[in-house]
Amino acid sequence: MLNRVLSFGLGQRALVLAATLALVVWGGLAWQRLNLDAVPDITTNQVQINTETGGMGPEEVERLVTFPVETALGGLPGLEGTRSLSQFGLSQVTATFRDDVDTYFARQLVNERLGRVELPAGVERPQMGPVSTGLGDVLMFSVESEKRSPMDLRAMVDYQIAPQLRSVPGVAEINVADGSVKQFQVTVDPQRLAARGLSVGHLVEALERNNANAGGGAMERGGERILVRSVGVATGIEDVERIPVATQEGTPVLVRDVAQVGVGTPILTGLSTKDGKEAMIAVGMMLKGANGRNVAQALDAKLAEIRTQLPADVRLTTVYNRANLVDKAVGTVAKSLIEGGVLVVVVLLALLGNLRGALIVA
Question: CA 208 to CA 205: how far, in whole Å?
Answer without folding.
Answer: 5
